[in-house]
């Protein structure tokens, strides 16, 4: 029997689980496209607790749960920019990312945005492509002195 995925707003109390999921997910979904150094630098973003506190406080930030286990999260910046979308590795390809994305799309539309955007890595292209996002621009991104190849994508709502 398939378990119910519940979506709810993130709280400050979720930060330990959010950062653990963030840190654990990166090497399992990106190892094909990233060096070990890139993965370590990216995962180190979990250590900036103050940044996570601000995201939860100021952004539209939601989490996905099955029973009491957090299985994913996503957040919107500036009302229509997907700043983060992560699903726990053991729950990939079960519709959780799609559910989080649909809710963020709805949130953007409720706030009168007609375009949803994100800045994604190569690993995420198939997911976003299958949900009608178009690659607008390929670019280099410097994060903590390490260069990443990213793609600006957008979708008309």
TrEMBL record:
Protein name, UniProt field: Putative acetyltransferase
Keyword entries, A-Z: Transferase
PANTHER family linked to this entry: ACETYLTRANSFERASE, ACETYLTRANSFERASE (GNAT) FAMILY PROTEIN
Entry annotated with the keyword Transferase: yes
Domain of life of the organism encoding this protein: Bacteria
PROSITE patterns: GNAT
Ranges of residues in domain N-acetyltransferase: 5-157
Transferase recorded as keyword: yes
Residue ranges crossing the lipid bilayer per the database entry: none
Single GO MF annotation: acyltransferase activity, transferring groups other than amino-acyl groups
InterPro entries to which the protein is assigned, alphabetical: Acyl_CoA_acyltransferase, GNAT_dom, N-acetyltrans/Recomb-assoc
